[in-house]
Write a structure and sequence with these properties.
By secondary structure, the chain is of the alpha+beta class. The chain has 3 helices and 21 strands.
């Protein structure tokens, strides 16, 4: 009996010691602070900025002088005097069609014209002497004029057999060869003057009151992503397209080195006005399906600072800053670095060494 009492006392002491130890450990564990440490971020202040009012558009570059060379008449090509990619001068002979029939007809008409001139001169003297009736003299004069007209018609047909450059420029890829039968309207090659380029583009009709000739524009193409070409608005169409409700505009490029007709381009037309917009660094903007978001710095309910997500409406991006059209006030601080570490209710600490 005494042995059972001793064993019971020993078990009580052992379990009591274990229970006391566990109580101390759980008490200390409960008193520990598991609040995550604040996140270090960089901030920027929303500022009011004066921006030039720009109108964005897209268009296609084209040459002021640019044509597809074709023929007005048909015939077999007997000579080609240019190669693809050649630079040609105005009036330079490019292609000749078979003109044997026209040249033979011309020789016959020259002879007829010479005879008509001889007969007219003879009848001119005879009519003065009244040796022939006036009607015969009138017939001689008509025959002379008819011979001249027939020769002029043949000369025109001969000219149509010779294709010349209508202006100086660069010839494109040749589409025909010697011996081909050329039909009217068949493209021989393209001729483009690269020294003068322009761009046609459309904008919504609501912008018409702000548009006028002489407005400056900047043009960008994919071939030169880091370069902007200067242009000037030269024309506003006289009507609005009833299908699209857009108006057609044309701008002339002041510099065109390296550009080719047909290139796709984006434009920024300076409307000559300024507007005040709230801007933040582009790094402060988080683009998501639910909307464009910025994290705004606010005072936490207990103490310190927190970052709260706010959906905003954004405008254009310019020089690394984005315009905020609504949802943000001037002077509010937004997170510009470290957004990927933020979550609801997070405490933040501002890194003063980073300025954006």
């Amino acid at each position: 009996m005494k042995a059972y009492i001793i064993v019971g006392v020993l078990l009580l002491v052992i379990f009591g010691s274990i229970g006391g130890y566990l109580y101390q450990r759980f008490s200390a564990f409960a008193e520990m602070d598991f609040t995550p440490p604040p996140v270090v971020i960089a901030v920027s202040t929303a500022t009011l900025t004066d921006w030039d009012q720009l109108l964005n558009a897209v268009g296609s570059i084209q040459a002021v002088k640019g044509v597809d060379l074709t023929s007005e008449t048909s015939g077999e090509i007997t000579a080609i005097s240019f190669d693809s990619g050649n630079k040609v001068g105005k009036g330079q002979l490019l292609l000749v069609l078979n003109d044997e029939v026209e040249r033979a007809s011309r020789a016959n008409q020259i002879a007829s014209l010479e005879l008509a001139e001889i007969l007219f001169k003879r009848d001119d003297q005879l009519v003065v002497q009244k040796s022939i009736p006036q009607s015969q003299f009138d017939q001689s004069r008509a025959n002379l004029e008819q011979a001249k007209a027939q020769l002029a018609e043949t000369d025109a047909r001969l000219a149509n057999k010779r294709i010349e450059a209508p202006f100086a420029g660069t010839i494109g890829i040749r589409q025909v060869d010697v011996g081909d039968y050329l039909s009217p309207g068949t493209v021989i090659a393209t001729l483009q003057d690269h020294s003068e380029l322009e761009i046609d583009f459309t904008v919504p009709a609501r912008h018409v009151p702000q548009l006028k000739r002489g407005l400056a524009a900047r043009v960008k193409v994919d071939a030169f992503p880091d370069r902007k070409f200067k242009a000037v608005l030269t024309a506003v169409d006289a009507r609005v397209d009833p299908n699209t409700r857009n108006v057609l505009l044309r701008a002339k490029l002041e510099e065109s080195e390296g550009l080719l007709p047909g290139m796709f381009a984006t434009l920024e037309v300076d409307l000559g006005q300024q507007q005040e917009v709230v801007t933040v660094p582009e790094t402060a903007m988080t683009y998501a399906l639910q909307g464009n978001t910025v994290y705004v710095i606010e005072n936490a309910e207990d103490e310190g600072l927190t970052a709260v997500a706010r959906v905003v409406k954004v405008g254009t991006v310019r020089d690394g800053r984005v315009a905020v059209l609504s949802g943000l006030d001037v002077g509010e601080q937004v997170v510009s670095v470290g957004q990927n570490k933020l979550y609801r209710g997070v405490k933040v600490v501002i890194d003063e060494t980073v300025n954006l």
